[in-house]
Every structure is written in structure tokens, then in C-alpha cells.
Amino acid sequence: MEIILAIIVGLLYASGIYLMLRRSLVKLVIGLVLLGNGVNLLIFLLGGLVKGKPPIIPPTDTVLGQIYADPVPQALILTAIVISFGLQSFAIVLIKRTYIVLDTDDLDQIHSAEEDEDDY
Amino acid sequence: MGINFDFLVDGLSLLFALMITGIGALVFLYTSAYMQGDRYLDRFYGYLCLFMGAMLGMVLSDNIFTLFVFWELTSISSFFLIGYNNESKASRKSALISLTVTGLGGFFLLAAFALIGNITGTYSINEMIGSAAVLKAHELYLLIIIFLFIAAFSKSAQFPLHFWLPGAMKAPTPVSTYLHSATMVKAGIYLLARFTPVLGGVLVWNNTLTIVGGFTMVYAAFHSIFKKDLKEILAFSTISALGMLVFLLGLGTSEALLAATVYIVVHALYKAGLFLVTGIIDHETGTRKIFKLSGLRKVMMPVAIAGLLAMISNAGIPPSFGFIGKDLIYESALQLNMNATVLTAVAVLANTLLLYASILVGIKPFAGPLPDTYKEVHLPDWRLWVPPLFLGAVGIILGLFPVIVEGGIITPALLSMHPTAPKIHLKLWHGFNLVLGLSAVTIMGGLLLYFSLKPSIRHEVWLAKFNKLSPQNLAIYLSRKFRDFAGLWTRLLQNGYVRIYVLVIISFLTALLAYQSFTQVRFYVDPAKISPLTSAEMVVMLILITAILYLVYTPSRLAAVAAMGVIGYCICLIFVFYSAPDLAMTQFAVDTLTVILFVLVLYRLPKYITYSNWLIRLRDGLVALFFGLLITILGLEVLNEPTSKETTQFFAENSYTLAKGKNVVNVILVDYRGIDTMVEITVLTIAALGVFALLKLQLNKYDQEL
Amino acid sequence: MRHLTFKTATNFLLPLLLLFSIFILLRGHYLPGGGFVGGIIAAIAFVLHAFAFGLKDTRKLLKIKPMSLMPAGLALAVFSAILPIFQGLPIMTGLWMNEPIPVIGLIGTALLFDLGVYIVVLGVALTIIFTISESV
């Protein structure tokens, strides 16, 4: 299982990077989302996979038992998920705004538009 | 740190301090008339004062780092003063060149000082003299003096770093007088003199200085006779004189050091005088071209007298102080054990050429008939002609009565360079001997040259042929190449294309990781740590992989967003399988929202277009896949490592006992790492405000035009 | 999308989802749940309503601007964090009531803090979604 998960993480990284290398702004942002998912999964994987033992103290106890899923990476990923929501919504709106202003989602054309400004 | 404002007044500092303040006072007086009515006069005085303070601080500092700071300050104030006419392009360029050269020297000075401070363990120059033996025996000695020489040569315009000085003459004449002949350029000399007792006396020190100084004085003197602009002639003759000083410091005997001390004073007096005279000529006639000027004595006698006096001192004609200086120079060269003849001949040659130059500046404009064009020229304000006349008079008075400066200034200065020097006695008349003969030869040679060599444009043209090889052009060539290289480098790496940045970073990272993987990774996974795979999980994984592949290949944007949603839900299921209910819930909710968002926005955006050809896609694909593969390998490798669970253990034991919570993840978020969460919700707020601002603000006119 | 079935379903779903989100928020300290996910569920409830009845109705229903939720939530979180200072304890020390309240359970600064998170997340999500849908 860990092996397959590791492969999936690799795949998420690869597709994320590949999309980020495209000229389209939309693809860039989708690539960013995939990369974020990949990172979350990687942290999760490295925290150790435990089945059926969430890090929740049983009602009768005051401490966690011996085998349980690691809560620290989970807390980390939870934060990351919520933050990436903010990041993604900002990025997607940025795309929209760019499209409204420049009428293209081609990064090369956006780039040359900047160059023109510099000439003034 | 040991970096203090430690000041020390000894003979050498006193000599320089007197020069700075004395000539400084005259220059200020001169400026008040010369720059009268200038728009930025206040600024000019400010720069000049800044320079004066910096220069005084430099010669009085005992701490090497304080000295360094003042050293740099003189460079900076010089930059401002050279570029004072900031509307002239040539002026700006000269300012930049001089700052570059002297600033470069500053770097080396700092390096040299750091090394010296490190070796001796003190930053006080006075205390360093005690460690002189240690320094001279140290293996880094050569490096130190190379650094120190580069610094001194750049400041004091020694070949091949001399080329900034003629350009610096673009500055107003008071500046040229003050900074670029009398004081600032002597900073390098001061540095060498100051460190003579600490680092000097070693063969390589002496030989380098003698050779560089000797070459510079002949080279520059030779150049000076072909120049037609008064200021340029003076610039090159200044370089030559500085070469002479370096040459004398290089000889290093007590006679040579005495000659250097006297010559510093002599040179400051006559060169400042000549510069001031040039300034007056320029100011009144509007030209500095030597072949246009003649007969000016008829309209400005006092100036002509000042020029004559300065020339006499320069030429070393008795009874001037210059005569004493020149005598001492020849004497010290003659008394050497090695190569006395050659070195003396070099000194005589340089002096002859210098004499010619000084006649050009001090006599030529005043002699002969007065052209009609200058009939209207009249004697300027007294504040202009009194300073040069005063300087010239002092040159003669000191020659007649050298005792005035002998005990109070010259002797202490010599002693601070050479503590064991024998007692000196300056006198004008030594009787008929070889030295007097040499002086006569010099004067004769100079006069002969003057009458045989008429100034004309031809010489300058002839000289310009060698310009391609001059250090200045080499330096400009180098800096241009450097700029081209920087431009190329920037275009290559900082080209503004995000994907190229990503590509470069990822490729580099991949190369590093791959190298590490080949050398250290074992490619082994412990079967005991692997959890079994159920059919439900298998299905989810398959869906996930399919969704990823579909996402990359789909030509439709909505399909891509849907695939993104599927990926998110699959990850959510993985969280469910492996005991992370909180994550699963959050991932589910966020994923839903994100998909809604993307659909809302992308609905109105253009269709996907494939912009790049298959070759680029193949390249990017390979880079991405390789990187992903490395991440997989890395992840598995990390799993093999034993992990420390101390933090986890702490939370497991204390989350209920201390924080009264049973959901450990939640306890971490709201209690133990509460501040992080606080910052996080702040960031979220900022993102929301950003979104609001981006969409709600109206497009302004400029944007619409685009 | 404004189908009658959808509208009717939403009428029931909105209060249910809101209740559910508060339930998730409250149980967060003992069982899976918490302010983040609770806030997002509440946001989804309102988004659903907006899809069914249109943004204007949702805004009317909300009464307050979603944007004003963000500072309110932040202030609540900060307040819960500095509350211990008044008792001479370091910042963010957990304070708890001695007796649990029925239904809600034990109340403490941690819950207050989580409530702040809940409100901020709700405000952020709604602000973003509303802004985008209005500008489409």
C-alpha cells in the first residue's frame, strides 16, 4: 500500500510540474492544486499509515493507546488544506482578472505585454 | 569589535593635516569668487566640507577601520565633486570611472586591513609597529601588500590604475586643485608612508614601489608634454609627481624618505598654485587650449607672477623650496648601492619632462604678444589671484629659510616613517657637486625642450594611436564585456517566463536528488512496515491514477476541473482509510468549494489551447516524470528511516490531561498551536479581501486601454 | 438550476446543514470535527441556497454582509487568546468552566477560539464565492 501511495504522490508531483510548465495560466493553477495535493499526501504518507485508529482518545481513557495514527502530520495537513483553499481561490480570481484585462491566458503574451509597458 | 574613533597626531599626520587645512582654506577663498553665482553653490560647499572632514579624519585615524571608512568617504565626496556638472555626460562618466577605480581600491584596502588586523590582533596602527616583524615573516605578507598596493595605486593614480585622474579634471578647478592634485590623490601616498614602518623594508615592497613609481613618473611625464589642455597637462604631471613619490617611498632609505617628505610639501605648493592659475585663465578667457594662450601678463600681472613662482618651484630652480626637494631626490637616488645610475637617470628624465610641462602652464600663457581677442581680459577679483600668489611665495620663502619647517614638520614626519633616521639639516646650497650638475642638466633640458618642441595638435593625434592599448580602454572594454555577460546571464535565467524558472529549478533539484539517490539510496522497502491492500483501496487508487492521467491529457477545461474534484475526493477516501477523519471531512468540504469556484470562473474563460509543440511537451514531460519518480523513491526511502515520535507522544499523553480535549488533532490546532491557527485565519481573511479587491474594483482607464 | 424540487429541498437542507455544521463545531474537541470543517459546511449550505434562490435572497437571509464575519471571527479568536492574561496567565492558556453545560458540553477558551475560526472560515468562503458569482 505504501508503495502504491508513494507512486501516486510521484504521479501527482509529475503532473503538477508538467502542468506548471505549460503556457496556459489555467493549467498553471491546476498544476499548483495537484502539487498541493501531492505534498499533503506525501506528508501523510511519511507520518506513517495506520488503519482504523484515529488519534482520538477513547471516552473511557485519558491518554491515547499504543497504536494510533500520528496527529501531528494530520494537524499540519489540515492547516495546509484550508490555506490552499485561500491560495487557490485567489489564484483563480487572478486568472479571471488577467483575462479580463489582457484578453489572453497565454503566459507568453502576458509577458510581452509587460515588456511593452517597460518601453514607455 | 575594537573599531573606535581613535585619533593619533604624529609627524606624518600633522604634515598632511596642515596641507589639507592650509590649502583647503585657500581653496575655499578661491571658490567664493570662482563659483560666484552658481546655482548649487551651497551643495558645492557641502561636498567640499565633507571631503575636507573625511580627508582629515583619514590622516588622523589610528584605527585601520576608521581609516577605511574615511578613505571611502573621500572617494564618495570626490564622486560628487567630479560629477558636480551633472548635466554634462562626460562629467558623469568621469565621476563614475573614478568612483569605480577608487572604490575597487577600497575593497582591496578593506581586505588588506582585515588580514593585517587578524594577524597582529590589533586594529591600531600605532600598536601594529610592534608586530612588524611578525607581519613581515607571515606567509600572507605578499597578499597583504598586493592588496595594499592596489588600494594605494588606485587612489594615487599609479600605472595602470591612473586613468581616472585626467577624467576627474572635469570637476570645477577648485576641486581639481584640492582633491586631484594637492590632497586626495596623496591619500595613497599617505597610506604607503603610514605603513612603511609596519610593512616596509622588505625587498618585494621596495622593488614593486620603485618599479611602479618609476614607470608611472616617466610614462605620465611623457604623456603630459603632448597634451594641449592646461588641465590635462597638469593632470598628467600630477600623476608623474605621484609616481615620483611612490618611487622615493620604494627606495626606502632615510634620505629617500626625507626627499619624499619634502617633495610632498613642494608638490602640494606648486601644483595647487598652477591649478589655481589655470583656473583663473579659464575663468577669464574661457579657454584652456595652450596654443591659443599668450601674452596674458599684460592684463593680469599678479597671476603671471604666481605662475612664474610656481614654475620656479616646480623646476627646482634656486632659491625655491623645489630646489631643495629636487636635490634630495637626486641625492637619495645617487646614494643607492644598486642601480644608482639607472634610477638617477630615470629621475632626471622625468624631472626634465615635468619642467617642460610646468613651463607650458606657468610661463607660456603669459609670455609673448597678447592676441587681440584677449584685450578685454582684466584682472580678476583678489580672492582669485591671492591664493596662488601666496602659495608661490611660500614656495620661495621655504627655499630661502627651510628652517621654518625643518624642526616642526619635516623631521617628525620623517621619524614617524623611519624611527631611526639620522638627524637632518635642510639647506639650499650644497656647493658644487654632482647633484647640482644634475639639477643644471634638468633645467637646461627642460628649456631646450620648450624651445624645440612647439605645442601642436599633431602630437596629440599621434599619441591617440596608442589609445587602444591604454589601461583606460582595457578597463572600459572589460566592464562592457562584463555588462554584456550579465545581460546574457539575465536573459538566460531571469527571462520572466515562470515555466523556465520552474524548469531550471526542477531540473537542478532533480540532478541533485538523482545524484544522491544513486550514491546512497538502497532501494529496499521493509515488508514488515507495509500495510496490506484491500480491494476497496485498490479501486480508489485506480480511480485516482486514472483521474490524474485524464486531467493531464484532457482538452476540455471543465473535464479537467471535474477530474481535479475526483482526485480530491479520492484523496479524501485515502484519509478515511488511514485514520484521519478530520482530514477527510475538511478535504471533502474544501474540494467541493474549490470545484464550485473553478467552475464559476472557468466558465467564462477561453478554451484550452495547446500552445507548445510536441518536442517541448516531451521535454517537460520527461523532466516532470523523472522528478516524480525521484519523489517516490525519496518517500519510500524516508519511510525506511526510524522516526522520532517525541512530539506525538507528548500530545498523546497530554491533550486530555492538560487541554481537556480528546480529538488530538483539534487540540493541536486550537490549543497547542493556537497562534499558528490564528495567523492562518488571518491569511484566509487577507485572501478573501484580495479576491474582493481584484473583482470589485473597477477597471481604471489605463487598464481598459490595454 | 432553479428547479422547484431543488428549491424545496434547499429549504429543508439549509437549516439542517447549519445545525450539522454547529454540531461538527461543538464536538470537535472530542470527536472528529472542528471550526474549519464546520465553517466550510455552513458556507456550503449558504452556497446551496444561493444556487436555488439567487444571491439576493441569500444575502437577505444572511442579513449581515459575509465580509463583516471575518473581522468578527478574528476578534473572537483574539479575545479568547488574550482572556487568560486578565487572570495573570500566559497568553492562550486554556481556561475551562468547572461544570459542563447540557448539550454543548464543557465550555472553555478553546471552544471560543474554535468558534472564531468557524466564523472566519464561513466569512472567507462566502465572501469569495459571492464576489465571484456576482462578477460572472
TrEMBL record, chain A:
InterPro entries named among the record's database cross-references: CPA3_antiporter_subunitC, NUOK/Mnh_C1-like
Entry-linked Gene3D superfamilies: 1.10.287.3510
Compartmental location: Cell membrane
GO cellular component, one term: plasma membrane
Membrane topology according to the record: Multi-pass membrane protein
Zinc listed as a keyword: no
Listed transmembrane segments: 6-21, 28-50, 75-95
Pfam families documented for this protein: Oxidored_q2 (PF00420)
UniProt similarity note: Belongs to the CPA3 antiporters (TC 2.A.63) subunit C family.
Protein name: Cation:proton antiporter
Organism: Adhaeribacter aerolatus
Phylogenetic classification of the source organism: Bacteria, Pseudomonadati, Bacteroidota, Cytophagia, Cytophagales
TrEMBL record, chain C:
Keyword Transmembrane: yes
GO cellular component: plasma membrane
Cellular location(s): Cell membrane
Membrane topology: Multi-pass membrane protein
Positions of the Na+/H+ antiporter MnhB subunit-related protein domain: 6-126
One Pfam short name: MnhB
Keywords: Cell membrane, Membrane, Transmembrane, Transmembrane helix
InterPro entries reported in the protein's UniProt record: CPA3_antiporter_subunitB (IPR050622), MnhB (IPR007182)
Entry's transmembrane regions: 12-30, 36-55, 67-86, 106-132
Predominant subcellular localization, coarse grouping: membrane
Signal peptide stretch: none
Top-rank taxon: Bacteria
Database matches in NCBIfam families: PRK12509.1
Family in the record: Belongs to the CPA3 antiporters (TC 2.A.63) subunit B family.
The protein's name: Na(+)/H(+) antiporter subunit B
Naturally occurring in which organism (per UniProt): Adhaeribacter aerolatus
